[in-house]
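Input/output pair, single chain:
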Amino acid sequence: MSDTVVLYKSKHGTTKQYAEWIAEDLRADISEASSFPGGAWEKYSKVIYCGSMYANSVKGLRLLARYHSRLRGKKIIVVGCGLSYPHIVETIQRIVNGMAKQLPKGLHANVRLFLVRGAVCYSKLGIFEKMILKMLETTLRKRDPNTLNPEEQEMLGALGKDFSFVDRSMIQPILDYHKKL
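Output:
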């Protein structure tokens, strides 16, 4: 049995893919977050939670908030899977600020955030998700193209069709950080 568990909440499968890669490389246990038994927290000293990101928010953090007393003293990694570049400081700060609102202070202080890039398959999207992407496209098209950063330019070129930024090498910083714990 491993001292690490990888939990995930995935709507379209991309977050699950990253969770599986992380669990495989770490030889960690893995579970879909909603089916993880509440009494199993004691078995692990490290918890990696992988969740989809929408509007700079990692979905499913309520699970960690609900069990915050059982997570005291554990090393916690949160992996957000979305479309944003994982190295843009402003993006990371917005997500960290959002996590601070979702998690109790004592728990939030012990969490390390990593971002990985996901994918879009338009046939799998719900109407709400399609509306959000259409609004993003409209907003970007209204701006002067010379003011778009590389992430926005790439996004504008990809919107309206299926695309994937999924890359197994994106988990390497997570694996490296885990080794140091």
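The chain has a mean pLDDT of 90. The first helix runs from residue 14 to 26.
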